[in-house]
Structures are given as structure tokens and as C-alpha cells.
Amino acid sequence: MSAPGDTAWTDSEGFRGTMNAEEDAKWLQWVTHQFKTIAGEDGEINLQDFKKALKVKESFFAERFFVLFDSDGSGTITLQELQKALTLLIHGSPMDKLKFLFQVYDVDGSGSIDADELRTVLQSCLYESAISLPKEKLDQLTLALFESADKDCSGTITFEELRDELQRFPGVLENLTISAAHWLTPPAPQRHRRQPRLLTSAYWHNHRSHALCLAVFVGLHVLLFALAASAYRAFGASVMVAKGCGQCLNFDCSFIAVLMLRRCLTWLRATWLAQVLPLDHNIQFHQLMGYVVVGLSLVHTVAHVVNFALQAQSETSPFQFWELLLTTRPGIGWVHGSASPTGVALLLLLLLMFACSSSCVRRSGHFEVFYWTHLSYLPMWLLLILHGPNFWKWLLVPGTLFFLEKTISLAASRMVALHIVEVNLLPSKVTHLLIKRPPLFHYRPGDYLYLNIPSIARYEWHPFTISSAPEQKDTIWLHIRSQGQWTNRLFESFKKPEPVFCGSKRLSRRLEMKRSQRKPQGLQPQPIDFGASAQGAVASNKEVIVELISYRPEGAPWQGHEGLVNTGTKDRTRAQREAAAEDPALVSEMSSENHQFCNIKCYIDGPYGTPTRRIFASEHAVLIGAGIGITPFASILQSILYRHQKRKHICPNCQHSWMESGQDEDMKLHKVDFIWINRDQQSFEWFVSLLTKLEMDQAEETQEGRFLELHMYMTSALSKNDIKAIGLQMALDLLAKKEKKDSITGLQTRTQPGRPDWNKVFQKVAAEKKGKVQVFFCGSPALAKILKGHCEQFSFKFFQENF
């Protein structure tokens, strides 16, 4: 048995020799500067200063690093000691980094690592990666890594055994570092600017429809401006500019409403025009036209003001400037000379609407300000008809379509009041609503609707993706993340012990629940309990059992009769259902804190189509969801599961199962890659049951032949290259291989730490050659920009969820 001892701290000059003299000088200068920012008056760093500088969550690693950095054992770290240690960690060889890692794990300094020391290290690793596991699972992880590394079964891990174990993970030692010590690494020099993406052929290939529409938009404005200006060239430049802008405004102020005709856009998605027009970016074009309207209106106004000023200065003009600008006396306009005062009113209304439409107003808890000021389009259209003699002609067709759609939407949404029949409060402040589905409500996977709950806010309508599959006939699922004023109010209203509205209309609730038991025969939803499948994982909380919709294929025995997702203990939930059907008055008493049966009035408007409607027409679809951005894919994956099970048949005698060879006519999918990125562990909980069922359905297929492949990422977890996480990630890999499931989520798919390496992800997708790749994303705009850039490099089609 050999230990590294003090040989870990070799001469730093040998390592800095890998850099040239200039780089070495800059690095030493940077370390010196950073040292002075945290060192005390005595020019040394004590343990408390070191902990703050490293920004570690667990003091174990800070203390271990401090002891190893303090080579003379004085209780403080000098600049020379810090430089020596950092030279090793940043520029050292893999073997020297391994020796340092061994010293960190060898807590008692005995020259070997026993099981208890390893458990202490792994426990600190869990805390650093924001992962919470039961003590039993921590013991299993410790034993898995210890037994794998202790080749001679001596009861301790030697340096050589740790080295051999780490060599099973290629590339880890070469890149081993301390992620929290980035403050000691000098900033990277600025690279040469890359060619702007808009100048690449891949960019134009993926944005042809945008470029075409923008070109038509600009060309039309130039044409309208030129025609109107040329007709008034005899009246001077100011009149020409005013008339040219006014003609453009006639088109913009009428067509801007067409971009928000959601029913028409949903219908267009089913036609060939969806391949030509950028229907997925209607809101961006609506915003663009809004900016254009404001700009043209200001230019139009300034031009008229200049013209009025010139007229007022003329000796032949009987009117003063203020009369031309604010009164009807000059007779300007086609309706009693009202062009000037209506123009002033229009500009004021437009500026008010523009100011209240900014994101700082909409997303800062003042949505109602945006909503009510945006309704000023009605008086604006009326004023525009009075202001311009030709505007009514431009508005005739768009206005008719607009008011027709609004009438249909209002009638459909307010015709019959629906009811929220069940509520589940899920981790990460997600509210899961189950709404009684109306008979004629037909939608496709990934569609969204507008929801209004009068008890929360009478006049507010908010868009939410439908997370249930269309094949689920009884209820509509919505998963709502608490991120704004309205969504927080919704979550808090159900978090109360006994919401006022949950016990209302008990007799009606009794009749509804009894009617829900009378289901037609054939393909029906059935609840499946997945609590056991994720046993031992934090994602399957011991007090929460998740039941998921599934569908019964032909020949399969029928179990159960309800199709609702419920969270609560298994026996209690079943008892609640049976008792609620007999006596709804007991519902409020039996409902747990996070699970409630209720009868809350609500209204919905929709459904409306999204880019995800293209998924089933894709050959190779890559679905990427970040956090709650998973909701549109929840519906899609459930629909895929339904269609998959619909093709599956089971012999009632021998229980042999087989699959039909044909596929649905509207489903061209050959492969689906599903990527879910979450910040913390709890965010996986509410959706893991569906993913478990999807994995179970593919259990008999080989890894290469699987139709659906899952990829899970947890960004708060440190990667294998970090000294504070390498042991934990090795143990998680070993235990996952042994138990055939991930310790974090309970899935067979291993949860990867950190963020995805998108280059590697897309390279793997491209190498599979399953057909044309289309990437569908729902999440933050910042990540969307990154993904769009990668898709352009690989010539993948990119679609983003927009409301």
C-alpha cells in the first residue's frame, strides 16, 4: 500500500512551463490581484475567508481544501501557498490531480480511504449538487463505489485502487478542477468575432418564410408610401410625407388585428400555407407592426405639425396654428372637419397602449393594465374611420374576420360554464388542474387554451398548454407554474386548508361524479400506480403516489374506472373516489392538503394550435423542454403512448403480446428524442410517472431500436469533472447500472449533471440518420437563442412554443 504523501506538491514551475512566459506572468498577476481582494490585513487568508471565496455550500470541502492548501500547517494560506496549489489544480498533470483528490477523500490522513470516510465525502457531494436522498440510498451509493474500488477486499481503498477506478471514466482526470474556483482563473481572451448568423446559408435556409414576409411587408410599405406621396407632390414635402405615412397606417392599423386571429391561424396550420407563412411567429410580427405603427404615427404627426405651422405663417391663412391642430373650424377631414382633433386623440391613445404593452408592465403583476389599455383598439378603429376617409375600406375585410372570430370565441367560451373538478398542488409550485371536458372540445397534442377563473380574476384570461392527451375523454389537464401574480394567487387559493369554493354545489357534484362512472366500452383510460416503480428515488415521495392515465389495448384485462391523475396516499385516494361517488359531502373532509376535489366555475377559450402540431408529421423529432416548458410535450408523449398501445395486442389466453406493423396515417415519426432540463431535483417529480410508463412500454426493445429516447439533465448538480462531485457521479453510475434505474428520478434513464453539451447532442442526433430532424423547444428565450444557433449549424428545423 502506498500513499501520495507530500509528493502531491511538486515544484510549480514545472507545471507553469506549459504556458509561455507572457501567459504565466498574466496568470500570476491575476492570482495576486484576487488574493488581495480576500486576504486580511496581514496578507493571509484564514478559513472563514477561504469558505466565502470558494462559495461552497458544504464546509467539508472548504475545510479539506484549506488544510491541503496550507502546506506549513500555520492555519492561514499565503500567496505563495495559494499559487502553488492552484498551479497544480489548473495546470497540473492528471496524476497530480488524482493525488490531490485522494488526499481530500483521505480525511484522517491514514493513507487509505475506509467506507465511513467515503460516506462522509459522498454526503457532502450530495449537498454540493443540491441532491436529497434517503440515508438508505446514500449507504447503497457508498457501498456500490467502495466495493467496486476495493479490488482486494481489504476494507480500504488505496491510491492505486482509486486510480484504477477513475480510469474507467475516460477524460475525467484530465479535466478535473474545482468549479467554484473560477475566480482564480483569469478571464479568457476575447476571440475573433464569428460571422453573424444572419449571413450564413443555414440561417437563410431556416428563415426563408420570415425573410419573404419581411420583404413583402417592406415592399408594400414602399409602394403605398410612394403612390400616396406622388399624388400630393404639388402640396409640398411635409404633406407628401404625411400622406405617405397615412396610407401605410391604413394598411397597418387594419392588418395588425389579423395577426391575432388565433382560430384562423389554427386553421391555416392544417393547410399548405403553414409551410410558406411563419405562423409560429405571429406575435413577433404583431409586435413588429406595433412598433411600425408608432413610428409612422409620430412621423405622420410631425409632418402635419410642420404643414400647419407653415400654413399659420402664411398671410392668406385665416386660422391660427392651434386652430388647425386642435379644432374642427378649418374643416380638415371628411366627417365635419374632425381630422385634427381625432388625430390628436389617436396619438394619445396609441402612446398609452404602447407604454402599457411593455414587458415591464405585463410581467410585473399589472397584467390588467395591459389588458384594459389594449382594448382601446375599439375606440381607435372608430376614430380612424372618422379621421381618414379611406380607412373603412381597408378595415372592411380584416375587421369582419376579427369581429366574427371574437363573436365565435365569446359565444363558445361563455355558452357553458365548465368546472374544475380536481386540483393537485405539485412540487416547484405547480398547480395541476383537472377540468371537466366539454363534449365538443376537440384538440390536438400540444394545443393551448385561454383560461378564466372568475373567483381568481373575473376579467383575466391566461394562455396555458393542455398537458393531457386528446384521447383522454373525461377531463382536460393543465399544469400551471406559479410565476406571476395571477398564477401565484391561484396556487395560494388552493394551498389554504379549506378553500371557500371547494365545497359548493355538493348535489351537482354528486350527479357529475356518478355520471363520470358511466363510461362507454372499448378503449378507456385506466389509472396506473407508479409509486413502486420509483421506490427509493426522491422523485417518488413516500407520502405521494402518482396515478397516471393509461389506455387499455384489445385483450388486456380492465382495471379501475377512473381516468384522473391523483396525488395522495394510494389507499386514501381510492377510498376518496369511492366515498366521493357515494357522498360528495365527504370530499372536503377527505381531501389532503395538496389534493382536493372541488367544483370551481371556469371558462375556456380554444383550443389553439402551436408549432408542436408538426411533431407527428416529422421523421425525427427532438423535443426539448426546460422546467415547466415540458407541458406541451406531456400531451404529445401521452398521445404517443396511446397510439403505441393501440397497436399493441395481447392474447387473452397466453398473454402473448405483439405489435401491428403499420403506423397511423398522420404519424410519420421514426424516432423521438426527449430532452428535459431542470434546475433542481424536485422539478422532476410531477412528470416522472409518465416517463416511467413510457420506459416500461419499451422495455422489451433494444437500445438501438427504441422509438423514444429520454435524456434528463439537472443543472444544479456538479459535473464529474468537479472534485466536489466526481465520487458521487461515479457512485450514481455504478448503482444505476446495478439497479437498472436512476437514483434521482427512479427512471431507467440516468440523470446527467449540469447542462447539455448541445454540440454532442446534435451530433449524435445527426449520426442516427432517422430522417429529417426537427427540433421543438419550450422554455426560456435565452436558451431558445442558443438552440436556434446550433440548429442552424446542423441544418435542423427549429420551432419554438409561443403564446
Topology:
Layout: H1 12-16, H2 21-38, H3 47-54, H4 59-69, H5 79-91, H6 94-105, H7 115-128, H8 135-149, H9 159-166, H10 201-206, H11 208-231, H12 237-255, H13 262-268, H14 282-313, H15 321-326, H16 339-356, H17 359-362, H18 367-374, H19 377-387, H20 391-415, E1 418-426, E2 430-436, E3 448-452, E4 462-465, E5 475-481, H21 485-495, H22 506-516, E6 525-529, E7 545-551, E8 567-568, H23 570-582, H24 587-590, E9 595-608, E10 620-626, H25 631-646, E11 648-650, E12 657-659, E13 671-678, H26 688-697, E14 708-714, H27 726-739, E15 751-753, H28 758-768, E16 773-778, H29 781-794, E17 797-800
Parallel strand pairs: 10-13, 10-16, 13-14, 14-15, 16-17
Antiparallel strand pairs: 1-2, 1-9, 2-5, 3-4, 3-9, 6-7, 7-8, 11-12
GO biological process, one term: superoxide anion generation
Keywords: Calcium, FAD, Flavoprotein, Membrane, Metal-binding, NADP, Oxidoreductase, Transmembrane, Transmembrane helix
Pfam families: EF-hand_6, EF-hand_7, FAD_binding_8, Ferric_reduct, NAD_binding_6
What is the SS-derived class? alpha/beta
User: How many helical stretches?
Assistant: 29
Termini separation comes to 64 Å
| Mean residue pLDDT | 76
Rg estimate, integer Å: 33 Å
Overall number of strands: 17
How many strands, what sense, and barrel or not for the largest sheet? Answer: 6 strands, antiparallel
State which percent range the strand residues make up.
Answer: 5-15%
- Tell me roughly what share of residues is in helical segments: 40-55%
Domain FAD-binding FR-type: 413-527
Pfam families: EF-hand_6, EF-hand_7, FAD_binding_8, Ferric_reduct, NAD_binding_6
GO cellular component, one term: NADPH oxidase complex
GO molecular function, one term: superoxide-generating NADPH oxidase activity
